[in-house]
Please model this.
Amino acid sequence: MRRAIGITLGLLVFFASVAMAQQTTPPSGAQPRWGKMVPHRMGGGVIDMRLLRQLNLTEQQHQQIRTIMQNYAASTKPQRDELRQLFEQRRTNGSLTADQQARVEQLRAALDASAQQMRADILNVLTPEQRTQFEQLEQQAKAKREEWRKKRSNAPSN
Model:
């Protein structure tokens, strides 16, 4: 259930950022606005767009990444739509059949594989120096998340 919610929320953030990027035309010389997380959940296959913003990407790199994201969104739309329908059925009926649950797992695996490929494609747009910097930023962000989780789990509940 938590994974399903995570996938759904990640997808919403992803498409909101894609829509915002398409609607917003930055003034010449300004950096375009990027969303926060891409595409569907924390963990494997996700690119934190806030980290990419720190890499001083060229306009060409921005456009290449935008194209990769749009292609990913278009190519995974049927799977995401089917998954959304299955989640709606589960919400309505309270559960899924064994076949439907197996299909959910297949769709998740396909989306994870697509996300991994999108991540690899985006990282290939970066220069070796940018890739190294990005990996360092990811490690720092991961350490901050772990620290936050520890603080949160140790905090007294009301």
Summary: Residues 2-23+35-89+98-128 form one domain. The beta strands are 37-38, 47-48. Confidence is low (pLDDT under 50) at residues 22-45.
